[in-house]
Amino acid sequence: MSLAEGVRLGSAEAPSRVLFGPHETNLGRGRVISDRHVAYYRARAAGGAGVIVTETASVHASDWPYERAPLAAECAPGWAAVAEACRPHGAIVLAGLGHAGSQGSSAFSQQALWAPSRVPDVVSRELPMEVGQDQIDALVAGFAAAASSAVRAGLHGVELEAGQFSLLRQFLSGLTNQRSDAYGEDRGRLLREVLVAVREAAGGAVVGLRLSCDELAPWAGITPEQATGIARAVADRIDYLVVVRGSAMATSATRPDLHTEPGFNIDLCRQIREAVRTGEHPPQVVLQGSVVDPGQAQWVLDDGIADLVEMTRAQIAEPQLVELVRSGRPEQVRPCVLCNQKCRVRDNRNPIVSCIGEPFSGHEGTEEAGAPAPSRDVLVVGGGPAGMEAARVLALNGHSVEIVERGDELGGSLLLAAKVGGRARLQRLADWLEAEVRRLGVRVTLGAEADLTSRDVVIATGSVPGLRAYEDFGGTIVDVTEVLAHDRLPDGPVVVFDPIGDAVGVGVAELLAERGRETAIVTQDQVVGTQLALTGDLADANGRLQRAGVRLEKRSLLREVHPGHVVLEDVFTAQRRDAPCAVVVHCGHRLPNPEPAGALRAGDCVAPRTIHEAILEGRRAAHRITALEGAR
């Protein structure tokens, strides 16, 4: 069976075996499915997605897990609009339905969180209320009413959430269900009741289930062996089953970043699929687990591991993924590098879902279109991510384009970022950008200075080292870019100075420690790598640092650098102390490269930020020249 071929789910036929799963987007207007949701899902349907599951909607008003979380009772008009937008493309569209239970938030509802037992959530530490029979009845009725509403709105059916952030999972697990009543003696009872009610309410519509089959807490949580029994018990009530892992005890497990190899749930999915295939009407089984490469997805199908493959982040990065595979152009699929930097949005900043490589994801249709401009001869100065994206988009719009790069290869800061410990997947985005500009006929000149005369010019020359807020008394200080570019450091203890707290300082410290260097990392924060909380890697990163033997100098400011030692200052007490150091690796903020001068600038030479901003500004610079804002 081919990834791009159709598959039947219950009463509906999907045009491909690729699922676009439910995920937080913050595209809502209040708690409704908005016009931005419609544009977002339409793009994936047009790109060939076989099954689209909308952002999980709370089935009861007691659940308000994040500010723009959809509420099923308010979603019918939005669901109808999504169904209408996706219908011409043939995708099965399902409503994600759930209740976050004790993993929700009381900040918006100002109500106690619901849970099977009075077990504090391990993340928020909030103590929930133990639901009684009245609340359980209301929950079951809420699932049924939401399913009925979704089907009446024109959707093909629903997917029920019993995965990581889920009250249904909390009832299934000994971690959180310590009841002594019937729902404690039989932890699967609530799930079965919900499925019976949803089946009746949805009629012959599609019913899917997302089930945590390994909570990674074998002392009390759901284990793969227990999940096998749960899956078998409900197999005849569902049309498909998405096999996931994770719980409150392992919040980074369901959607880890690029430190975890793609396909991490393959063995688990194989085990569950074998268990449910024995019934008379076995459900289709879906593999979830950072699958972003079409080749791996096809292998999963060929090997009988799953019947469909969830490729959510892959389709955030490349909405046209299935169509490119179907038309024999898989090499043109923009890679997902699994960084979680822009697609993981469940935090109090309420960011819109997006992608570092495809910054228009989540912003479909919001760029203004201008009048077409005639073909021009355009020079792009700098071959980093901003420069390559500008050249790519200019060439797509029919311009004659040349990139002039002072160095001996394209990639710029993206190549350096890929050398940071654990972040080698970023190289794939650099390779894709280069392959695209060459495929589109962009002339590339390396190792040369640019002549800015007589052409339209885009300046994308990157950044230069920034200021250093400490005194140098003759010690050795090396900028992190030099370490990554040349991989040469003097012998002796290394101090990584990290005033930013992102992946760079942490990754460089890991890299050096793994090479046998005595390494310390200095941060003013109480936790090393605080910005990694946004990508879900904070706890894992600190574990990796400690296992690697990195000394964590927390709550510390770097004040002086001397030959053989540095002076650190406690941020609370201002007490100073010496630490051994042969070389400081400076991982601080950088400044824009002012050279050469030019009005149309993009990326780090405007303000050094992330890959996302570099690519976005490169694209916008190209659109300013073409006057085709919003073109791909």
Can you characterise this structure?
The structure is a single chain. The protein has 632 residues and is of the alpha/beta class. 29% of the residues lie in helices and 18% in strands. The chain has 18 helices and 28 strands. An eight-stranded parallel β-barrel has the order 3-4-6-9-10-11-12-13, surrounded by six helices. A five-stranded parallel β-sheet has the order 20-27-21-22-23. Strands 16-15-14-17 form a four-stranded parallel β-sheet, covered by helices on one side. It is globular.
Numbering strands along the chain, what is their spatial order in the largest sheet?
A: 3-4-6-9-10-11-12-13
Q: In total, how many beta strands?
A: 28
Computed Rg = 26 Å
Biggest sheet character: 8 strands, parallel, barrel
Helix content: 25-40%
Separation of the first and last Cα atoms: 31 Å
Low-confidence stretches: 628-632
Shape: globular
- In terms of structural class, how would the helical and strand content be classed? alpha/beta
* Overall average pLDDT: 95
Report strand %. Answer: 15-25%
